[in-house]
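Data deposition worksheet. Section B asks for the primary sequence of the deposited chain exactly as it was used as input, without tags or linkers unless they were present during the calculation. Section C holds the resulting structure in token form. Section D is free text for depositor observations; keep each observation to a single sentence. Incomplete worksheets are returned to the depositor.
Section A, Depositor: J.P.
Section B:
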Amino acid sequence: MGRLWSIVRAVINPLYLLGATLLVPLVMAAAGLLFFEMAYQERAFPGVRVQGADVGGMRAEEIFRIAQAHGTGYFQNANVTLRFADRQSVVKPSDLGASLDAGATTANAMRVGREGDLGQRLKQQALAWWRGHEVAAVVAIDEATAQRRINDIARDVQRAPRDAALVWEKGQPREIAAEAGQELNIAAALAVVRSAATEGRAMEVTLQMRSVPPRVSSASAALTAARRLVSGDLVVSTPRWDKDGKALPNGEAFRLKAADLPGYVQLTEVPQADNSVGLELRIRRDKFTPLIAPLASLITGTAENARFVFDDKTHQLTVIDPGKPERRINAAATLDAIEKALLSEGTHAAVAAATLTPPEISATATAEQLGITGLVSAGTTYFKGSSAERMTNVKVAASRFHGVVIKPGATFSFNAFLGEVSKEEGFAEGLVIIGDRTIKGVGGGVCQVSTTAYQTALKAGFPIAERLPHGYRVGYYERGMGPGLDATVFEPYVDLKFVNDTKGHLLIESYYDGVNATLTFKFYGMPDNRTVSFSNAVISNVVAHGPDIYEPDPEGKMAPNTVKQVDYAVDGATITLERTLKKDGKTTTEKLVSRYVPWQAVYRFGPGFKPPEGAIVREAPKP
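Section C:
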């Protein structure tokens, strides 16, 4: 064992001696490098130069002063020769906005030997010490200042590009051709200035021109459109319909002469697929909008629902009027149509565009869809003895309600469907009551229709939203259901309204019988379990009528010594009856009260007639 340990020591001891011999130089080298790094910790390494000046071992503030001094001297004293064609100009770098960035240059000097890993840093330090390291000056250029000074030398040869354009001369279009512009290549000139300034030498800069293309290279398409524009007048028409909604031939609305059309268009720049800009002729919508605004009244129409009759056998609906859509002018589409028309040759014809919205209830509606399953109620009134004019008015007014459909929960308005009462709408002129006078007017007999509708609504058990009796009792309206159940209307002031409180739509049918002098209304809908009954009428507060009244014929057409009765005497009274409604196990009773004033008989006479003694004579009413 002792012998083995002797052998081991004999081998190991020489290795220790060899390691110690090699380690000592390495430790000394590392210590030297550490001392070198610490010595130049805040100084530039040996061999670093700025603008030819050795700045090795200098601190940053010393290097900054050297760089600043060089910048002041060079940039304010060196010559820069600008050449263009046969002219030249000598300026200083500072005149071109060039200056040395002393701070950035100093930072670059201090960065040498301090970037990368240890090996890279040692390499940079060694090369700087052995070969030297020239730090490039950091040059700043104010390009706006440089551009102004460089432009001075070639100002008269630079020109902006000219876009293609369209002008009007004596009502005809002419194209102005595009021209390319030319300008100095400032970027190339500044690159030379920056390079020379970085090296700190004098410089010569040869200025180069470059072509500048126009934004709009051609107006030929706009010229073609402009020639078409003035090739004819613009005629704008509107679609027309008759009162039943049937289309009529279009009617001319307004016209603009060809010579005036240039004032209604403008050129518009439009980006093209190749990134160029094109010119297009477009209408001036601000000028056309006031022209088309009045067309709305020629086009606008309210929607009217389809009308039907109910077949009692098949329980299906038959269309008697398909209805009309709502019509509104489409201003944007109309302007588009005008613009399109103006690009055509010859006379430019455009039709105003209308937006049509179908009615809420169209002709395709079925009885099942509307919830119409059978008869809800019917009512008939009688008018035997009426004049021909009165019968005409009853017939015309009744036709306004035939086939009308009322939605569930909606309020029916008599006046809304009656419309205008005039000769133009088919009504006749006869005797009508205005205030306390009977005079000649249009529409006498319309209340026969409103009374029929009122009585039918009462029988249906519908809530009555608005109803007014006549001022005095009228015999026509008391035939059938008796007194106190009439309804007067006077559009637009006095109306008859009731509510369809069923779950289905309500279909109104009206039937005029001129031979038997009857008018019947039928209400079809969704019958429910309601029943309606009426008490007998109670007449009270009777007020006797006054003496007869005589007045001259206001038209002066009666023969001498003749007389005719135009109003009949009737006592005033209050008439009360009750309507009892049974529905869903509930019973409700409603009082119906009508108050009438007394009315005197009225006679009219011709020239020479003497009214009887005791009669009241008054002036003739104004015709």
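Section D:
Residues 40-156 form one domain.
The mean pLDDT is 88.
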